[in-house]
Recover the amino acids of this structure.
DNA sequence: GATGGAATTTGCCTCAGCGCAAACAAGACG
DNA sequence: CGTCTTGTTTGCGCTGAGGCAAATTCCATC
């Protein structure tokens, strides 16, 4: 199920760097000893690019903490549509269905690049919640902010035009996973027009047209599965709907 | 802040009917003694029609359990749009910001009719979570299902046409708050075209046109702030997009 | 029962964005 | 180095649904 990374990768597997992990917001306020007890029960896994971390409807056997890479969480509808729920960045949790009383995963999670994650068996959750209150409280904060995000998304879909939504999506992506380059801020994983369309409720054609237009205005530079935001500020103007339609 | 009901209302205030409350899913699996300890710390409040239960951005001083009535939860955007997040029915929680680590309410809650609710001070939450694990677990189940709902909503907005979304909204409403009458299933509180528009991300004009068309087909009967679904099954056909556009 | 305000209906016009289709470019792979 | 797959671009036409505006109906209230 979990394919291996290409050989030559230099990421930690057996010997996890606890000091790095301890800095993550999920573990905020947790004593070192407790942290060890929590992390000690996880196994470390690798997921190759384009492989699933977990799948919709599948029994939720584990929950995960992404250490390295990027994961796309997608919901598939019965009639064949795909809607991207969110992208997971390093340090974020995923597959926390069990904390919400679900027994199956509500979405598919696909590695956008080769990934490393910690995995805990879901059955440990009740014990964790009881023994490490700050851990569970941190996790519920995550859930809370995802609920907020989802509502914000509903509001965007209800009140904004496609152009604004796509602009917002790019801004979110560079905020979450942007890497400065000399050209501008690069979205640090392969992302296609189709992917952006699935995030914003539109079509790859419309996204392509928008990116082309923005490219002409030197707002972004983009290529195959690659988007660089050159002028975040002007993009924000569009996102907020204060753009001067010239 | 909390206006009174009209005189002559016969609802319980001081003497709460515990046996009724005990049946609610929020309290599932909780010992009678614990239930008493939880409910004992709540105060019972009344909210008059059109009055706020709590308001967006306000400090989240309390969380609530609706006992009677219907509450509309609405988010306002900076640019004046209003998006209805959900309707709360009797037995449901609202204002549970504190359980998610928020200090302010993320939305406005307005009584759609005169309401009765229990209110707990938010500061009790950590103690409740620690002392009554099934209570907190039930609450997080609620949160989980709301997260699911929100995602479902995003998917609807991304993949369905307005007609389907409005049909879905009516079906959800009759499921949640439908009352059988000889005409059909009545949505049991005043709801305007505008309200439906705010639930579905469209305009009152479009909702009005749709309801008129459905009225002609004898699918629904509607009037001023009043909607009766006559043929839920045919409405479901529309909602699923299997309608024969005649 | 007259008045005023709120909710609803409807016609007409416009356009953002989708669907379709075809061409094109860039890697991947042998 | 040619070939093939996958992602991208772009033109064209169409239409679902919103915007605007005016008329109408229903209630609440005095």
């Amino acid at each position: 199920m979990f394919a291996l990374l290409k050989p030559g990768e230099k990421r930690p597997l057996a010997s996890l760097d606890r000091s790095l992990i301890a800095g993550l917001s999920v573990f905020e306020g947790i004593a070192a000893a407790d942290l060890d007890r929590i992390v000690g029960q996880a196994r470390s896994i690798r997921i190759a690019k384009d492989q699933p971390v977990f799948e919709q409807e599948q029994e939720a056997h584990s929950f995960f903490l992404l250490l390295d890479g990027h994961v796309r969480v997608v919901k598939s509808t019965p009639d064949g549509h795909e809607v991207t729920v969110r992208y997971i960045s390093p340090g974020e949790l995923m597959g926390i269905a069990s904390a919400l009383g679900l027994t199956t995963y509500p979405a598919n999670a696909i590695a956008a690049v080769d990934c490393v994650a910690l995995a805990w068996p879901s059955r440990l959750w009740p014990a964790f919640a009881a023994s490490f209150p700050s851990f569970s409280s941190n996790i519920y904060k995550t859930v809370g902010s995802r609920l907020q995000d989802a509502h914000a998304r509903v509001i965007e879909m209800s009140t904004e035009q496609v152009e604004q939504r796509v602009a917002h999506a790019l801004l979110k992506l560079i905020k979450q996973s942007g890497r400065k380059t000399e050209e501008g801020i690069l979205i640090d994983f392969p992302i296609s027009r189709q992917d952006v369309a699935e995030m914003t409720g539109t079509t790859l054609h419309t996204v392509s047209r928008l990116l082309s237009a923005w490219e002409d205005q030197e707002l972004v530079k983009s290529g195959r599965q690659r988007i660089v935001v050159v002028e975040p500020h002007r993009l924000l103007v569009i996102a907020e709907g204060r753009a001067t339609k010239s």
